[in-house]
Amino acid sequence: MTETLLQARSVGKVFREGGRELRVLDGVDLEIADGECVAILGRSGSGKSTLLHLLGGLDRPTSGAVFFRGTDVFAMHELAIDRYRSGRVGFVFQQYHLLPELSAWENVRLASMIGRGRRDADSAKPSKRAPKERAAALLERVGLGDRLSHKPAKLSGGERQRVAIARALMNEPSVLLADEPTGNLDADTGASVMALFEELHDGGQTMVLVTHDAKVAARADRMVTLAGGRLVSAGAESGVEAPGALSGDGESGERHG
Amino acid sequence: MYKTLLISKYLRRKLAPLFAALAVMLCTAMVVIVISVMGGFLDTLKESAKSITGDLVIESAYRLRGFEHYAGLVERLEAMDEVAAATPAIRTMGLINFAGGPVPMGVLGVDFAGMDEVIGLADRALWSPAQLEERAAEADRLVELGFEEAEALAELLREFLPGDETGRLSDQSGSAERSGDVGLVGAWAGVAIYPWNWRQEDGSYAFEDAYVGRPFTLTVIPLNEAGTLGSFQPARKDFVVVNDFKSGLHDVDSSTVLVPLGVLQDMLEMGPRFEFVGEIDELTGEGGELTQTSDGRVNQVVVKIEPSVLVASSLTAVQERVQEEVTSYFEEVGGRDLVRVSTWEQVHGQLINAVQNEKGLVTFLFVVISLVAVVMVATTFYMTVLEKTRDIGTLRAMGASRVGIALLFLGYGLAIGVVGAGTGVGLATAVVLGLNQIQWFLATYLGVTGWLVVAAVGGTALGATAGTLIGFVRRSMRWWATTLAVVGGLGLFLPALAALFANGGLGTWLNAEYSFQMWDPQTYFFDTIPARLDWAEVTWIGIGAVISSVLGAVVPALVASAQDPVEALRYE
């Protein structure tokens, strides 16, 4: 059995909006082992993205805790959490979220620029190669070796997502957190992006994929399904929600668009 | 590091920062230009005021009556380490009569050589030694032709020529004895006094008639030691103008004549006093000895302080030391005069303070206007923050800290401030250095320039408007608008240019009819706009502009850094 990398321990998240309380996550327990690929399934508004944000230290849980290699992430200083996001985690979003002013190459390098000066803290992960060369090599690896100087606007959706993946990998993250990475892509492009993820996973990259596409989820080592803020099935092969999930959906549905 | 990259990208990509930088630039340039023109005005005013006053002026509290023992005082003062030179003078009022028109006039009795040492009088002379020599040669020719009276004039003119090649006035200048036998006494008149010297529109003087050698009659009222009317009638004497002087202050140039000190002392009955001392036979009135009991009176001693002393200590400190020396001197000689020492700034205080206040007020007003730049920067940043909300979320997701995001936008504000202030100072420098040329251009060629610019711009605007309308109908607006704009612009500009060449009178008429004079030299004291750049001031204004820009970015930067990254990522 491999070591537990990331652990969510009875994590709850409540959003307050207009005096109403929306319980998006309600006591979720999840363990992700080193080298594992976990898919989180669920309908829109089931809280999958929120769980991903909590795992990545982008949002704070209302209750419970997230542990990274046994360290309580949210017990750390704010700057340490920032460092955790930049050094340990790589986010890939459905909307790519590339900076429009920067070229593909600069977008990828940006990750190392933000992380710079913090690398000393986790010297266990030295990146010997110069960031510029590493960024170029990563773009080469995702098949965009000839698109270095292109602005995101000049790239297709699939290409943008590849740049985003290269950016997420720039700081050699312990875990890749992908939120509907193929959600905006057509079937063929989505498949090629998924192939890239699989390739990365084969190389030993730990990753968590959030998706509502059962086909995508099926390629993961393990699937978990979120409904009504709870993990309704772990390890199940199907993305179909358990009974009783619908009412929870109705409440939190407006959180996601 | 990522901040630098993003700031440089943000600066280059967007129009909004350009406008913000433009606002900062214009405000910086505006304040620098205003402060330079006002400061230059003030400096020139001070320079002129100082140049006709000397550093320190020692005056009798009894004003026109003056004080005795001045020769000893000058000696004592010149022995002081701080004093470079000192010279006695009389400042009084009189009437002069140039060719039949009497005018009230300030009269300054000076020892020309001494005054030259103290205030550089020779540098204020309008006519050069060469020109005076030429005029003297003319007089020589008149003598050869038989007009022997001209000999005195030639002699008089040469008397006021520099003693040697240093260009300084010689000790002989204005000594009454030399010209006493023919009764001609030389004097310097302010350039604006003689009615046939008049100031032209551009501030320079036009001279008609012979420039020197004009006679005038000076009438003064003698005052005795009690300060009341001495003789029963005013004293009158004829002088010949041997040079004009131009201080730069129109007020002074139009109301001051300089005459030899000894001559004025005699006229005012302020000269040396003689008495019979000793036993006098009461019956015959014989016996006793005629002795000089007083060297006469002056009402001013003008002092030049060693420039090196003024580097180390303020003029006020020197003023105090001189005052002490003067007081102790008068105690020693038993003078009963109250004498006080004033600096040139105190003498011209009213005028200088007025201009200084004006400078402060105008600068303040323009600084207030410059707050517009701050608001402009703040608005731009607020819009940028809104526009960049998703990017901020992305950066946070990539591990950027809240402080980092705040610094990113503060740095952006700093960059805009630096760019705006830098270009603003550049623009202001160009304008200030070229101000007189710009003024000259506007005053000279505004008509023709305006004619051509109006033709070109008007034609372009008409063409663009017509093109937009036609293009709207024809569904190709850009092509029609640009084409017709060029056609219209050239269509009016070329005929306008041709009209100028075809009819030379048109250009002359336009320039004469439409001209703009920013600075009317007839109204002000100086011929040219006395703008100067004080780099200390410019630096402070630049720093102020940069700080204002950063301040304008503070609130948006805090708003940006406070954004919830998850919310920001969802922002549409």
Quick structural gist:
The complex is a heterodimer of chains A (257) and B (572). With 257 residues, chain A is an alpha/beta fold.
What does this structure look like?
The complex is a heterodimer of chains A (257) and B (572). With 257 residues, chain A is α/β, with parallel strands linked by helices. Chain A has helices spanning 48-55, 78-87, 104-115, 131-141, 157-169, 187-202, 214-218, 245-252; strands at residues 4-17, 20-33, 37-41, 63-68, 71-72, 89-92, 175-179, 206-211, 222-227, 230-234. The termini of chain A are far apart. Residues 118-126 and 236-257 of chain A have low confidence and may be disordered. In chain B, a hairpin with a 6-residue loop joins strand 10 and strand 11 (287-294). With 572 residues, chain B is of the alpha+beta class. The mean pLDDT of chain B is 83. In chain B, the strands form 3 sheets. Chain B has a 6-stranded mixed beta barrel with strand order 2-3-9-4-8-7, surrounded by 4 helices.
- DSSP strand content of chain A: 25-35%
Mean pLDDT of chain B: 83
Strand order of the largest sheet of chain A: 6-7-8-3-9-10
Number of strands of chain A: 10
The major β-sheet of chain B equals: 6 strands, mixed, barrel
Stretches of chain B where pLDDT is under 50 for at least 5 consecutive residues are none
Strand content of chain B: 15-25%
The parts of chain A where pLDDT drops under 50 for at least 5 residues are 118-126, 236-257
Looking across the biggest beta sheet of chain B, what order are the strands in? 2-3-9-4-8-7
Tally the helices of chain A.
8
Main β-sheet of chain A: number of strands, strand sense, barrel status?
Answer: 6 strands, mixed
Distance between the termini of chain B: 27 Å
Oligomer: heterodimer
Category from helices, strands and their pairing of chain B:
alpha+beta
Helix amount of chain A, in percent?
Answer: 25-40%
Order of helices and strands of chain A: EEEHEEHEHHHEHEHEEH
- Count, helices of chain B: 20
